[in-house]
Write the structure tokens for this entry.
Amino acid sequence: MTTNEPFTSKDGTAVKVDLGQRSYTIHIGEGILRDAGQIIGPLLSRPKTVIVTDENLARLHLNTLNKSLDGAGIEHTAIILPPGEATKSYEKFSFLCDALLENDVERNDIIIAFGGGVIGDLAGFAAAVLRRGVNFVQIPTSLLAQVDSSVGGKTGINSRHGKNLVGAFHQPLAVIADIALLDTLPPRELASGYAEVAKYGLLGDIGFFEWLEENAKALFAGDGQARIKAISKSCEAKADIVARDEKENGVRALLNLGHTFGHALEGATGYGSCLLHGEGVAIGTVLAFRFSEQNGLIASGAAKRVQAHFASIGLPTTLSDIKGDLPDAQTLVNYMRQDKKATGGKLVFILARQIGDTFVAKDVAESDILNFMREELQNR
Ligand code: GLY
């Protein structure tokens, strides 16, 4: 799955997302933000770009990106937004579109999304619709964005009805994942992003999950090789699924392992710092395995193993790990109904036959989920 692109950083590896004419490369390496100008330069139709980023990134790393673009002779400006999920709003979206137009972004230009999932989703969505579509490059700065949200072309903003409900599929021209940027990530954010790394093992590759059981500690301790391997394996898994099902008509739904439960918990806790996305996914994944066990789909013990792994790196794994009140089971199920996967009013879950073998279940009775959530809440 590695490619021979005109430019591949000497310090990293490359994974290709195979989508015909819209194929692109994910560059992964340590310190490769310094190579951004060289990677982006050949993709530009004129030597000019606009960076979209947030205040934290601007303070910590914008200078490195600016220097790299300067070195490649690329003119650039930056639009700097407030950090946090609240930025994925209609208000900031319209502000950003106008700011990009004020900066003279043309149809053939490329904008750079430089940040975590929030910036990637927002800037990607602006790119999808601005002048009916301009190109963009993702420079993901969080683990979550490097292994999941920057790859595969999902872009969007939140509505008061739920997360990511207004958006578009719009593939980037390239992704540049510099693992050195993870060093400045708050530990809780790193752990939260890790839930999406483990997801790839759990949904389809038990060998990768076993490797993570052995190596997660090294990855958290800052081992560069372990980080590059974990991120490239995750991106390969995602690239493979996206190449088979770009618009999520089938197998791509597997990437939502733990997300139907997780999104409901995020919604119920206000999509804030009470429960980060990956934390919701970690609890949601354990719930998906527990539900699979209760329904006799998977041998007992699997859910405990998944739970033990998440707990070993400090992720929450049960409803009792969530501070504060939770609503009743019916309200949680109502949140699940907002899920984009829901079709014909039916809830869709990703369930497991074993670790590394999951499937899309479209026929789960709502009453079964309601009873399951009631029990989980009682045991809290
Ligand atoms: N994060 C799930 C997907 O990209 O399909």
In short: Residues 148, 152, 154, 248, 252, 255-256 surround glycine (CB under 6 Å). Confidence is low (pLDDT under 50) at residues 1-6.
